[in-house]
Amino acid sequence: MTAAVWVAKAPADGYTLMFTPSGTLTTNATLYKNLPYNPAVDFVPIALLVKVPFVLVVDPSLPVRSIPDLIKYAKERPGTISYSSTGTGAVPHLAAKLLKSSIGIEMTHVPYRGAIPALTDVVAGHVQLTFADPSISPPLIKEGKVRALGVSSLTRLGNLPDIAPLAEVGVPGFEAVSWHLVVALAHTPPAIVNKLHDEIKTLVAQPEIQQQMIKMGLIPVDTPSVEQLQNFVASEIIRWGKLVQQAGIAGSE
Fold it and tell me: How many domains does the chain have?
């Protein structure tokens, strides 16, 4: 938010850009009472670089190895399952909310300040599950310190190819991913916006960059046009706004 406010006040000349996760432009619009910038009008999207999926992992001491197991366990022991997240309104929090409503179980939210402490407390058994960052969770999955039930994207991840999407293993249609976008100031001249779009698209298409993204558990994106991105961001503001409202946290920050 601090970066977005600063960028929103910069000259619209194409020399000041923001590389932002999705929440800055989507969930914040509904989560905050008085957001000091307008995600829908203060910025123009330049290039969508990657989708950022998450891995649903559980404490391995939990007798849960699949989504049907999780449903059975949760319904037999109401009120006993808690889940960690990187903070209220963050994508891992809303992903868990979406999972709860999709499979009809109750869980208690425990927010943390970041991905590492949220995952560490699942390893320690203090909370039972989380939607974990795919760049830091693979070693813990391999060592058996957490157990993976599925990924939050509709496709498998390059660094965790053996873990199926949740949509394929018990939660039809489930998708909850963040994304990273480069934006400029609204009213930046179209010629500059299009030039930046073309240059970034070319750079991101380089094989070494694509491979590094895949190695980190990210899903590279062949960025749509600027006009298509504007429609995409508008639809994402609506989509995530509905989830924030359903979670009962609209205007809570």
Answer: 2
Report the C-alpha gap between 46 and 49 in whole angstroms: 10
DSSP string, 153-180: SSS-BTTBTTSPBGGGTT-TT----EEE
pLDDT in tens, 112-161: 999 999 999 999 999 999 999 999 999 999 999 999 999 999 999 999 99
User: Quick one: which of 72, 87, 90 has its CA closest to 177?
Assistant: 90
**pTM, two decimal places:** 0.90
Q: Which of 122, 148, 168 is the last residue of a domain?
A: 168
Give the whole-angstrom CA distance, residue 4 versus residue 171. 35
- Looking at the structure, do residues 205 and 160 belong to the same domain, yes or no? no
The SS3 call for residue 185 is: strand
Q: Categorize the per-residue pLDDT at 92 as very low, low, confident or very high, splitting at 50, 70 and 90.
A: very high
Identify the DSSP state of 48.
E
Report the 10 Å Cβ neighbour count for 11.
Answer: 10
Residue 105 lies in a domain: yes
Task: For residues 208 and 143, state if they share a domain.
Answer: no
